[in-house]
Amino acid sequence: MADLGARYGGSGDDTPVEPAEFDPPAGAFLVAWLEGEPVACGGWRTRSQLSSEGVPEDVAEIKRMYAVPRVRRSGVATALLRALEDSAREHGMRRIVLETGGENPEAIVFYAKSGYDRIANYGFYRNEPDCVSFGRDL
Predict the structure, then answer these.
(1) Which of 42, 68, 82, 132 has its CA 20 to 30 A from that of 61?
(2) What is the DSSP secondary-structure string of the chain?
(3) CA 105 to CA 47: how far, in whole Å?
């Protein structure tokens, strides 16, 4: 959240998120460890439980994905993203979506390189001018 706050100001992300949304089987939250220290994290939650946007029940949303600067471009984030996708798939999800912003160009490049396509903006920031949303079939 501190990284997001530095990029965007304020608390960083005002999207309503409750920890219970990541409880299996409707979600999961994973932490990557390196040499006994947490170096990356991320979660997915079932999108249909979050709103009445008419989203199918088999769509997951990635939230709070973060890697500490020293492990970026080392493969840790890619491994974590694949683990999130595997977990979502194992729980019946057929598609995964996420949103980021223009002030996070590293994330935009990362998701595009990871096989994600731009989609129509959705969610809390859908009407913000720098909202960038991605999706991928699982």
Answers:
(1) 68
(2) -HHHHHHHSTTS------GGGGSTTSEEEEEEEETTEEEEEEEEEEGGGT-SS---TTEEEEEEEEE-GGGTTTTHHHHHHHHHHHHHHHTT--EEEEEEETT-HHHHHHHHHTT-EEE---STTTTSTTEEEEEEE-
(3) 24
List pLDDT tens digits, range 5-32.
565 566 656 677 889 999 999 999 999 9
What confidence tens digit (pLDDT) does each residue in 61-113 have?
999 899 999 998 899 999 999 999 999 999 999 999 999 988 788 999 999 99
Which pair of structure tokens corresponds to residue 57? 């029940």
Residue (of 105, 106, 50) closest to 78 by Cα position: 106
107, 100 Cβ separation under 8 angstroms: yes
Report the alpha-carbon distance of residue 5 to residue 3 in Å, rounded: 5
Cα–Cα distance measured from residue 40 to residue 10, given in angstroms and rounded to the nearest whole number: 22
Structure tokens at 116: 């994600």
- Give me the CATH code for the 2-97 domain, please: 3.40.630.30
Supply the pTM of this predicted model: 0.84
